[in-house]
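stage 2 :: seqdesign
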């Protein structure tokens, strides 16, 4: 409740309609670094898992994000196995007017966004399977936050449409399913105080990954004059009126 990134000032600006179009673009472009890592970390976790039942349960995450073949269920059983979360995120960035090749290449993402996403991937690859699974438990909080995001962005930004936000429409049931499985797993396998602390620390680490990405966005696009070299620079027409940071 204290550490999840919905408490971050940039997050509150985004949902409260206090971001310019350029700041929303910067958020979507940089968040792609994290989105692109999700199927990589899930594949890495599956490769390390000896239990076929866990592999089967976790495999749906790959289909959710990468998409699947046309005869594969995908997307919570809605029959659209060919369409995944990554494609839907690119629908978002397309709708915000960002060039797809710029988003996918990540060449204009903030260094901190790339580093944070890769730190998450490294964590899942290098820590115990229990810690890797526990790091996904931020999904416990995401359905409620996604609802706030959809409502807030549609209410406050005339350049956002329901079609643009298709990624978020699909996520709540997936996140609820996945977090329920992960929570059952860690409760069953974290059988000592040491293992329970590892679970807690893994969840804290994941919260810090998400928080760090918003710190970088705030420093670059809210604090004037701090956009790193080669990073995305919003068009002057998209900057809008100066945004006053929310009081803490």
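stage 2 :: out
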């Amino acid at each position: 409740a204290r550490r999840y990134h919905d408490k971050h000032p940039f997050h509150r600006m985004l949902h409260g309609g206090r971001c310019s179009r350029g700041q929303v673009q910067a958020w979507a472009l940089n968040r792609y670094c994290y989105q692109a890592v999700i199927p990589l970390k899930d594949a890495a976790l599956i490769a390390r898992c000896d239990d076929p039942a866990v592999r089967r349960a976790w495999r749906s995450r790959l289909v959710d994000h990468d998409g699947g073949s046309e005869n594969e269920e995908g997307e919570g059983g809605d029959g659209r196995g060919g369409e995944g979360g990554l494609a839907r995120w690119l629908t978002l960035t397309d709708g915000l007017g960002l060039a797809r090749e710029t988003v996918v290449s990540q060449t204009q993402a903030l260094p901190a966004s790339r580093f944070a996403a890769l730190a998450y991937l490294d964590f899942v690859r290098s820590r115990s399977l229990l810690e890797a699974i526990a790091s996904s438990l931020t999904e416990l909080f995401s359905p409620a936050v996604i609802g706030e995001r959809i409502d807030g962005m549609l209410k406050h930004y005339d350049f956002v449409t329901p079609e643009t936000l298709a990624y978020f429409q699909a996520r709540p049931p997936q996140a609820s399913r996945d977090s329920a499985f992960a929570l059952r797993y860690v409760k069953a396998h974290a059988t000592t105080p040491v293992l329970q602390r590892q679970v807690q620390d893994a969840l804290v680490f994941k919260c810090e990954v998400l928080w760090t990405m918003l710190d970088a966005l705030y420093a670059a696009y809210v604090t004037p004059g701090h956009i790193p070299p080669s990073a995305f620079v919003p068009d002057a027409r998209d900057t809008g009126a100066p945004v006053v940071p929310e009081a803490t």
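stage 3 :: structure notes
- The longest helix spans residues 193-221.
- The chain has one domain: 5-222.
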